[in-house]
Each structure stands twice: as C-alpha cells, then as structure tokens.
C-alpha cells in the first residue's frame, strides 16, 4: 500500500512517500481504507522527534492521527462495525505502531466512531483532535450563556472550533489572532477581535470570566490580569509544571488554571456532532493535499500559518 512515513526524526524531509506492506489485522482492531487525514501539531511534533522517548526509533514509521475512511475488515468478535461502514476518529500516537497516513490504517475499535452521513470525509477528519480539545476547554472553563470568554489564537485548528462552540453556548467571545485573520474570526462569530501583538491588542483593564488559550503559550503573568477573580484559564498544552502553576494561581490569584486536553468520550462526539448538525459549527478547510504531498501539508501546518485545518486526501 502507499503511505507517508518517517525514515528518521528531524527535518521536514524525513517524511517520505512510498510503498509499505499492509498492516495485519489484530484482536479488537479494524482495518480502515483511509480517505482523509488532518494534520495536527502533535503530528509535526512527532516528526520533529519531540516524543521519541515514548515512540522509540523504529523506522519506517507511519504517522498521522485524525482520520476518516471506510472499514475494510474487522477482527473476530467486533459487531459494532462491518466492512463498508464509514468511520472517523483518532489513532493515538502511543497506541499503535501504524498511523493514519496510509491507504490502509490499523485502528483500535475503541478509537473509531461511526461517521454521520452528512459529513464529508474531509470534514470528519478535520474534527477529532482540534474540535474535541476546543469543546473540552470550554467545559473545563465552565463557559455558559453570558460568559465573557477570550479565545487566544482564534483562527487555528483548536481556536476556530472554540469560537464557534462558545457562540453556540451563548458566550460573549473576544478573539485574538493575527491581523490578516481578523475577518475570519468575525465570520466565526467573535464579538470582538484583537491582535495578539502590535497595536490592536486587548485594552488594558479588560477582564474575562474565562480564557481558552488555543495557542497554549500565553504569557503566564498576563493571565491573572485578564481574568476576573474566580475566572478560569485553560491551555491544550501538556506542560509538566501545569499542576504547580495551577496551585499557585489558585492560592495567590484566586484563578483556576487547567488543561484542556482532548476528551473523546462517546458523549463528547455526540455533543460535537449535534453542534455540526444544528449548523452551529463548521470546519474551516482551506488547504488539501494528496497523500504523496504529505510533506508539503506538514510544512503548511507547521510553518504556513494555516487557518482552520490542513487536510491530506488519501
Ligand atoms: N493536548 C491536547 O489534547 C491538544 C489537542 C490539540 C492541540 N494541542 C496543542 O494546542 C496547540 C494549538 O493547536 P492547533 O491545532 O490550534 O494549532 P494551529 O492550527 O497551528 O493554530 C495555532 C494558532 O496559534 C496562533 N498563534 C501563533 N502565535 C501566537 C501568539 N503569539 N499568540 C496567540 N496566538 C498565536 C495562530 O494564529 P495566526 O496563524 O493568526 O498567527 C493559530 O491560530 C498546539 O501546541 C497543539 O499541540 C493539544
């Protein structure tokens, strides 16, 4: 089968395209004919070698996490899916030796979700990691009707889903993004839009009930100033010192500091699909690449300041 795979960690050129053997079907798994894959920062961070201690260094290594496709074969004992079903989901980097960037992917049954008929493969593949992180971030921040919310990095993968999902909850949304993306942030529903640097930044003294830092690296000392007492800050970056900072933030500033890691329980997918079905959320997809140009897609995602999601078609 054709696949995009790493031959080493490091430079963008280490993601190659070529033929590799099809994966064998193991217990509790499905083989899926992949149709679309979206690129997330975790994918290009894996290519960089950031997770090499966890993933090891056995190459060639097929990477890729978010996928959508059609079931080819199911392991004995699986009744939830059958060949021909459309599915989507996330192949967690640590659970499988074989990722989504291939004609056939090996997927644990529990990582697959039946794909609603009204989603395209591109749309379905764009969703899991970024959208489920956005909805979990809003949940962790307690965003509800009338909440004053700041989404930092509002037009990237996580951010553009967060703005839309927060508007659907009835929040008042302030977005920060680069100047060229201000119009998109408004189209997504943001009530106010500021830059994260330069002149048009958030006016001094402005405070929010919650901050979803979709970019994840907001300057820590700014956070208590931007939050009302008792307000919440969530970041999708897994940082070892988050728990210590959370304790300091609570004791010293009276603010909640939390992680908005992706959560993918069935009820989380239900919530996400309801948002889309009710036309409250739509993925922004401006760049699609064929599998043989996966390395270009990774370059676009890492260096090209993409808006919304970058998709690879298989
Ligand atoms: N733990 C998890 O479960 C999880 C899940 C998803 C994502 N993440 C992490 O969350 C981060 C964001 O993911 P993503 O998919 O949204 O990435 P992305 O699509 O690359 O978007 C990044 C966003 O950050 C913005 N940005 C860049 N510099 C900024 C700055 N100085 N201040 C504020 N915003 C800035 C970009 O805006 P412009 O393009 O306008 O500059 C863009 O909107 C990544 O580090 C990713 O690894 C973690």
Tell me the helix content.
25-40%
Model regions low in confidence, pLDDT < 50 over at least 5 residues: none
Tally of helical runs: 10
Average pLDDT confidence is 94
- CATH homologous superfamily name of the largest domain? Medium-chain alcohol dehydrogenases, catalytic domain
> How would you spell out the order of helices and strands?
EEEHHEEEEEHHEHEHEEHEHEHEHE
User: What characterizes the major β-sheet?
Assistant: 7 strands, mixed
Percentage of β-strand residues: 25-35%
CATH top level class name of the largest domain: Alpha Beta
- Global shape: globular
Brief overview, please?
The protein has helices spanning about 40-50, 50-55, 120-125, 130-140, 155-170, 180-190, 220-225, 240-255, 265-275, 295-305, and strands at about 1-5, 15-20, 30-40, 60, 65-75, 85-90, 105-110, 110-115, 150, 170-175, 190-195, 210-215, 225-235, 255-260, 285-290, 310-314. With about 325 residues, it is an alpha/beta fold. The strands form 3 sheets. Strands 3, 5, 6, 7, 8, 15 and 16 form a 7-stranded mixed β-sheet that branches. A 6-stranded parallel β-sheet has the order 11-10-9-12-13-14. It has a 3-stranded antiparallel β-sheet with strand order 2-1-4, with no helix packed on it.
